[in-house]
């Protein structure tokens, strides 16, 4: 498998940034372009977290409503467009999942074996959007913190699920994630 062409990745990112900015100005054609460029990726995130196709479709609908209403707040200098969009999708999917009454019994490792056999979203986001910078910073932090951050932010697991899976107190898991995020932020700020 060949590595993606950086110039085409940069052009795709620029097109998405422009479409998001125009969507913030209530441009329906730009919003349609945002949907066409991102719906498959965002649906994959929703499906991985919801573990229910109908639920993921409902969440995706809410995601695009949120994007339509909040596109004017997007700032390209603060986040890549796909990271901003993926955060919205992740948060909406987690909210949906928390509202469900069934308890999650699968271990943390099961998140990688869920429905979509395509390349995992965490790998795609790191490779396509952050060009290795985020990956390098993640590798630089303590392994327990790194694992917790990846499971929480890319796998959609809650603090309670992470604590249960790692057999540690909830406060300990929250502390690992918080310290890891602070270290990650410091690394990313230094690399910027």
Automatic annotation (TrEMBL):
The organism's taxonomic lineage, starting at the top: Bacteria, Pseudomonadati, Pseudomonadota, Alphaproteobacteria, Sphingomonadales
Domain of life of the source: Bacteria
Pfam families: Sigma70_r2, Sigma70_r4_2
Organism the protein comes from: Sphingomonas kyungheensis
Annotated ranges, domain RNA polymerase sigma-70 region: 40-102
NCBIfam families in alphabetical order: sigma70-ECF
InterPro entries in the record: RNA_pol_sigma-70-like, RNA_pol_sigma-70_dom, RNA_pol_sigma70_r2, RNA_pol_sigma70_r4_t2, RNA_pol_sigma_r2, RNA_pol_sigma_r3/r4-like, WH-like_DNA-bd_sf
Keyword Nucleus: no
Keyword annotations from UniProtKB, A to Z: Sigma factor, Transcription, Transcription regulation
Gene3D superfamilies for the chain: 1.10.1740.10, Winged helix-like DNA-binding domain superfamily/Winged helix DNA-binding domain
Residues of the RNA polymerase sigma factor 70 region 4 type domain: 133-184
Protein family membership: Belongs to the sigma-70 factor family. ECF subfamily.
Protein name: Sigma-70 family RNA polymerase sigma factor
């Amino acid at each position: 498998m060949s590595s993606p062409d950086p110039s085409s990745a940069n052009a795709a990112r620029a097109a998405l940034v422009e479409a998001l900015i125009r969507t913030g100005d209530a441009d329906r054609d730009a919003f349609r372009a945002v949907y066409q460029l991102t719906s498959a990726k965002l649906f994959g995130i929703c499906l991985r977290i919801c573990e229910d196709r109908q639920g993921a479709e409902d969440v995706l609908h809410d995601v695009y409503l949120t994007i339509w209403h909040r596109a004017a707040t997007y700032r390209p200098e603060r986040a890549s467009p796909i990271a901003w969009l993926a955060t919205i999708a992740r948060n909406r999917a987690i909210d949906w999942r928390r509202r469900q009454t069934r308890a999650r019994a699968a271990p943390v490792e099961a998140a990688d074996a869920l429905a979509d056999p395509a390349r995992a979203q965490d790998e795609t986001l790191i490779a396509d959007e952050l060009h290795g910078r985020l990956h390098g910073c993640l590798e630089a932090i303590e392994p327990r913190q790194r694992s917790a951050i990846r499971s929480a932010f890319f796998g959609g697991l809650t603090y309670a699920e992470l604590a249960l899976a790692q057999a540690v107190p909830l406060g300990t898991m929250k502390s690992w994630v918080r310290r890891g995020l602070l270290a990650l932020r410091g690394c990313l700020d230094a690399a910027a």
